[in-house]
Design a protein that fits this description.
The complex is a heterodimer of chains A (217) and B (142). Chain A contains 7 helices and 8 strands. Chain A has 217 residues and is α+β, with helices and mostly antiparallel strands. The chains are: A alpha+beta (217), B alpha+beta (142).
């Protein structure tokens, strides 16, 4: 009985990564049509995905429901939005139990790292907009305007010695979650370009700034 | 073969399967066709021309105006008049790239948010005053 259970678990473990994998797609496009088996990709990840050169693509949609259980709950379970939400949850859980984790996030990427030579005092607002694009912030006053361009990045390193709290729930030893050492290094940086214009929309001054590393440990 | 060795032989491939990676991109909005921006002429094109070229905007807003004397501006309704002179159509297309990799002992997660934005500013007569466009996404119109 144990051997059968072990064999079953191994078969399930082998099938689990087949959802969108190369083996599944290869099977569906080569041997699949010759066999009575249905397309494995549709079977495992649902029919609302389609495969492109960059991978499976699906429309997540944004139809919020004012009821906890929709009438078509079975169909919705195989919808792309459910897979995406499940993937997010699995990623968050695995990151939380991982002893060493590195997370980085970057928003934007169009703010110049060096002052563009075209930005000289007297440059027209129209030229600055054509050069740099839409600003993240634009404040207008009677006496002039302020334009702000900004990119932000965040990096977090976390290190655990001991059993991480989510994993400790699975270990039946009292106070096991308390016996741990945790180190977190967090860095946030922002790159900013500020442009000051006078009442006639001519550039007065441009300032480029990069935050020094602000670390929280 | 001893039972312990057999278990290890079975366990090692299972442990190898505990690695995983996920690559995903969420896309919001419709890619902006930059080749059509040339059709907008500053001082000539109107709000209707912009709507015809690009369709409904993602947002229709007014620039935040800071009056020199807020109390006086409110009393004389100056703020509303100035904001009417600073209306803007915002078209935005955003890509949210996520890379995830784990071997259980080590996990790496990377997120990058890139957006293409087109802003068209109008004067009080709904004529285009400024146009600004920036592209950050690598594959918006491919």
């Amino acid at each position: 009985m144990k051997r059968a259970a072990l064999a079953g678990a191994l078969v399930l473990a082998a099938l689990a990564p087949c959802g969108c994998g190369l083996a599944t797609l290869t099977f569906d496009s080569t041997i699949g049509p010759l066999t009575p088996a249905p397309p494995l990709h549709d079977l495992t990840v649902g029919e609302e995905f389609h495969v492109t050169e960059t991978g499976p693509v699906g429309t997540l949609g944004d139809n919020a429901l004012l009821r906890p259980y929709p009438r078509d709950v079975i169909r919705r379970l195989s919808a792309p939005s459910s897979f995406w939400a499940a993937a997010q949850g699995i990623q968050a859980f695995l990151t939380s139990i991982s002893p060493i984790a590195n997370r980085t996030a970057q928003v934007g990427g169009s703010t110049p790292t060096e002052m563009p030579p075209e930005l000289q005092p007297g440059t027209a607002l129209e030229s600055a907009l054509a050069l740099l694009g839409p600003p993240d912030l634009w404040l207008r006053r009677e006496s002039g305007s302020l334009l702000l361009y900004r990119d932000a990045s965040r990096r977090v390193w976390s290190f655990y010695v001991g059993v991480p709290p989510p994993a400790a729930l699975l270990v039946p030893i009292p106070f096991i979650s308390s016996l741990r050492f945790r180190y977190i290094s967090e860095r946030e940086r922002a790159q900013k370009l500020m442009l000051f214009f006078d009442a006639d929309d001519a550039l007065l001054e441009a300032r480029l700034g990069v935050d020094s590393d602000a670390e929280v440990q | 073969m001893p039972r312990g060795a057999l278990l290890w032989i079975l366990a090692l491939p299972c442990a190898a399967l505990l690695t995983g990676c996920a690559l995903g991109t969420q896309r919001f909005g419709i890619p902006i066709d930059a080749s059509r921006i040339g059709a907008i002429e500053i001082g000539t094109s109107t709000k209707a021309d912009v709507l015809r070229e690009f369709g409904p905007p993602t947002a229709y807003a007014a620039l935040p105006v800071v009056p020199p004397d807020p109390a006086e501006a409110l009393a004389e309704n100056i703020l509303a008049a100035v904001e009417a002179d600073n209306r803007v159509f915002v078209y935005e297309y955003r890509e949210d790239h996520e890379n995830f990799f784990t071997v259980i002992l080590f996990t790496r997660f990377r997120r990058q948010v890139l957006s293409d934005r087109l802003m068209v500013f109008f004067d009080a007569h709904d004529v285009v005053r400024y146009v600004a466009f920036a592209r950050e996404t690598p594959s918006a119109t491919e």
